[in-house]
Amino acid sequence: MPANRTGLLIVFEGTDGTGKSTQLQLLAKALKEKGLPVVTTREPTEGEYGQKIRQLYAHRHTVSLEKELDLFLADRKEHVEQLLSPALESGKVILCDRYYLSTVAYQGAAGLDPQLILTRNDFAPEPDLALLFHAPIQTGVNRITQGRGEELNDFEKEDYLHQVASMFAQMKLPFIRRIDAARTIEAIHSDVLGLVQPLLEKLQ
Ligand code: TYD
User: Fold this and answer.
1) Closest Cα to residue 27, out of 201, 203, 200, 202?
2) I need a surface site. Which of 47, 71, 188, 202 has the fewest CB within 10 A?
3) Angle 65-79/48-56 helices, nearest 10 degrees?
4) What spatial distance separates the first Cα and last Cα of the chain, rounded to whole Å?
5) Predicted local distance difference test score (pLDDT) of residue 9
6) What digits encode the pLDDT tens for the residues 99-123?
7) Is 120 in the pocket of ligand 1 (CB under 6 A)?
8) Are 30 and 115 in contact (CB under 8 A)?
9) How far apart are the C-alpha atoms of 152 and 141, rounded to whole Å?
10) Which tens digit of pLDDT belongs to each residue from 9-43?
């Protein structure tokens, strides 16, 4: 970890519909109540490249896999330069909804080499903690289609999500902690707090 990094980077990862965004908001609230300087953010971002990525949701196959990867990397570079690095240097606790493990899993499941994807993310600061939410794919898909009343976009097709889940399951990195997301919101939140607490002690 570089000497000028005084904040924390906690990322929320997993397949769609596992409730990670809900948990991110709950954690943000709990940490703010402790008086910590919390910054919440997400990828794809709202920036130029993030918007281009969102346009792809409905017709993913109009660009090559390489071009798609380039877009996610360009979006992340901008995010790192404009928000993540400055916030880490000024001691913020960053909660980020998706980060480079999503690229490894989603673009890896689409056919690119997961190791190569990881290497291409060398520029991105390593997370202090990656919470990897897992639940049966059917549970996630039901939450999206029935709970939110949305249709599945091109990144959320069921067969593909099974492959994405298998990519996440194979990852072995020291900062990953796995969370069974097929439980109540309160039980999951309590696990999240338990995993984050030791990091806060180092921060203070
Ligand atoms: P999602 O978290 O669902 O964002 P939104 O609420 O804007 O829809 O992420 C969008 C999709 O992008 C999701 O299905 C996963 C995919 N994705 C990748 O394929 N690669 C990446 O690097 C990232 C960050 C996301």
Assistant:
1) 200
2) 202
3) 150
4) 17
5) 98
6) 999 999 999 999 999 999 999 999 9
7) no
8) no
9) 8
10) 999 999 998 999 999 999 999 999 999 999 999 99
Helices 65-79/100-109 angle, 10° precision: 180
The dihedral through the CA atoms of 111, 13, 76, 85 has a sign that is: negative
**Full-model pTM:** 0.94
Tell me the C-alpha distance between 165 and 169, whole Å.
6
The pLDDT value given to residue 91:
96
Mean pLDDT of the chain: 93
Identify the residue whose C-alpha is closest to ligand 1 atom 19.
106
Which one of 98, 116, 160 would you pick to mutate in the ligand 1 pocket, going by the greatest count of ligand atoms within 8 A of its CB? 98
Task: Tell me, using a 6 A CB cutoff, whether residue 98 lines ligand 1.
Answer: yes
84 CA from centroid of ligand 1 (Å)? 18
